[in-house]
Amino acid sequence: MNLSSFARPLFAAGFFCVTLTVFSANQPAKPNAMLACQLLAPPPLPSGHAVMLGFRLRNTGKDTVWVLDWNTPLEGLRNRFLRIRGPAGELDYEGPMFKRGQPQLQQYRRIDAGQAIEAEIELTLAYDFSRPGKYRVEFTGHLHDMLKAPAQPPRGQAALVPQGLSCPAVEITVLPAVTG
Q1: What's domain 31-175's architecture?
Q2: pLDDT tens digits, residue range 20-46?
C-alpha cells in the first residue's frame, strides 16, 4: 500500500468534515423562542385587487433585540422567502433577487422587550393571484442575524448568527372578479 492510496480517503474525509462544518455554521438553528412571528391574511378579495400580507414579529423575551431584516417582509419583497400554493399548485416568485454586501445599521430593526414590529407587503408585485380560489402562504425564511442588547449592530457577515423563525401559515381567498 503506497502513501497516496492511504492519504486519499483521509483527505476526502477531512474535506467532507470541513464542508459540513461550513455548511451547518450558516444554517439557522431551531426557531428562536423569544420571537413570535405571525402572518396576517387579508379578508377575501376579488381577483385583480392587490393582495396585502401583514407580518408581525413580537419580542416575548426580557431583553431588547436587534434583527436583520434581510429576506423577511420587514424589508419588502426583495427575495423569495414565501411558499405560496394556489388552485393550480405552487406559485412562482417573479420579484427581484438581491445580493448582499455587509449589513448596514438601517437594515437592523430594534424590538424592545414585549413589543412588536410590523410590515405589510403587496404579494401581487411578485406572485400571480389572478385565479380565484384559496392560497396557502407559508414563511420559509429565517433571520440572518439577531443580537441581544447591550450588543449593537451592525456586524460583518462572518459574525452573523442565523435564527430560525416559525410563522404559522395563513390562507388567502381570492374571489371571482366583480364585473358590471
Answers
A1: Sandwich (2.60)
A2: 333 334 567 678 889 999 999 999 999
Burial bucket for residue 109 (CB in 10 Å: 0-12, 13-18, 19+):
middle
For 71-115, write each residue's pLDDT tens digit.
Answer: 999 999 999 999 999 999 999 999 999 999 999 999 999 999 999
* 3-class DSSP string for the chain: CCHHHHHHHHHHHHHHHHHHHHHHHCCCCCECCCEEEEEECCCCEECCCCCEEEEEEEECCCCCEEEECCCCHHHCCCCCCEEEEECCEECCCCCCCCCCCCCCHHHEEEECCCCEEEEEEEHHHCCCCCCCEEEEEEECCCECCEEECCCCCCCCHHHCCCEECCCCCEEEEEECCCCC
pTM of the model: 0.83
Q: What is the residue extent of each domain of the chain?
A: 31-175
Contact 84, 51 (CB under 8 A): no
